[in-house]
Amino acid sequence: MPTGSFSRTEGAGSAGARRLRRLLVAALIGVAIGFGVLLATSQGLRTIRGGRIGGDLPAFYGAARIVRGGEIRRLYDAEAQEAAQKDLLPGTGGRVAFAYPPYVALAYVPLTWLPFKAAYTVHAIVMALMLLAALAVLRPALVVVRAEFVPLFAAGLLFYPIFRAVLGGQNTPVSLLCAAGIAAALTRQRALLAGVWAGAWLFKPQYAAPVAALLLVCRIDRKRFLAGFAAVACVYYVAGWIMAGWDWPLWWLGHARAFTLADYAVDRGNGISFTEIADEYGLRALGWVAAAATGAFALWMMRRSRMPAISVIAVAALTAVLIAPHSLYYDGGLAALGLIAAGSLDRATLPIVALWLLSCLQPLRSYLPLPPMTIVVIGSMWLAARSARGGELDVGSRGL
């Protein structure tokens, strides 16, 4: 993040560093005030400018309504989703598709006890707190986080994909918390806890599974890691079984695949994975080659000895984003982990700031040959790997 390099050098007390901290904190306060004004001045679910409040939250809120109504088998039915979201999308109609595993819908049921606008407010606050929790989890392991906690929180919340996820009803900060939890646990040589964190991430299996697979080639206690991972996976499976029957994974996978194909057709401009970029240019084979090369690079990095856990997880998580068949730009918020890892290197300040700023160009994607967030993810992954090679990361434990 932009403040990362000021944690342990003379620059920590420089006028430039102090100005940057004040600017970030002021921006954070401004965003909080702006969010309050947006809600206070809105009419129903419409802003004073006619925009819609809620972002993608209607998908989760509507799915929770279906679960609460006892119609689990219709959870992925287009008509049922549209009916559940009818009053959440004023003047637009249609639906925001929900394709997560059924236990994710169950987790959102408490929000349905609130009116939608109140639920949206609570969700946004909770997602901001998830980011705060991710930094708190990393704090014992990284000097930079201990020294710059508040500015890093401000920089993280203002990082474009995370900012959009928080205000847009998405859950990227939860993914970031899971990734941070894995890194912190491995830093303390607690493989079982790392497995629990990785298992918790199975609310997004397309990221949790590749990260867990990559970690199995690392020099960790694989049995303990797999035990923690399997324990949470079993809890999720049983929850799905109770909700929708023992065969729910097959049932869900069919709907998830259909959703991916449909969403890819209408949401291609927001995709940042190699496959999506290659398809845009009619070069699907090249996308698979790029994904394979990225996976091979990640495997090579995982096998390196003395590699700090934060770098391991940053490389693994960003690899998962790049090789997934369908990754949307807000999931590029996981690049924050790579930027934090690199933040302990003084000479990394300029590229960290450059990548942070580059993310702000994502709204211009339709005018650019490549998604800015894809470049940010690749750059953050490279910085994390570079910091590991340099051996200067402020991690309070041995490497893996």
Helicity range of the residues? 55-70%
Number of helices: 19
Shape category = globular
Unreliable segments (pLDDT under 50, ≥5 consecutive)? Answer: 3-12, 390-397
Rg for CA atoms = 21 Å
User: Which sheet architecture does the biggest sheet show?
Assistant: none
The fraction of residues in strands falls at under 5%
Kindly report the average pLDDT value: 87
Number of strands: 0
Our measurement of the CA-to-CA distance between the termini, rounded to an integer number of angstroms, reads: 24 Å
Structural class based on helices, strands and sheet pairing: mainly alpha
- Reading the helices and strands in chain order gives HHHHHHHHHHHHHHHHHHH
Describe this structure as you would to a colleague:
This protein has helices at residues 15-41, 57-68, 78-84, 102-107, 116-138, 143-147, 149-158, 160-167, 172-187, 191-200, 205-215, 222-244, 248-266, 274-280, 284-302, 309-323, 335-342, 349-358, 372-390. Residues 3-12 and 390-397 have low confidence and may be disordered. It is globular. It contains 19 helices and no strands. By secondary structure, the protein is mainly alpha-helical.
What structural keywords apply?
mainly alpha, about 0% strand, about 65% helix, about 400 residues
Task: Please provide a brief summary of the model.
The chain is mainly alpha-helical. The protein has 19 helices and no strands.
Topology:
Layout: H1 15-41, H2 57-68, H3 78-84, H4 102-107, H5 116-138, H6 143-147, H7 149-158, H8 160-167, H9 172-187, H10 191-200, H11 205-215, H12 222-244, H13 248-266, H14 274-280, H15 284-302, H16 309-323, H17 335-342, H18 349-358, H19 372-390
Helix pairs in contact: 1-7, 2-3, 5-7, 5-9, 9-10, 9-16, 10-11, 10-12, 11-16, 14-15, 15-16, 16-17, 16-19, 17-19, 18-19
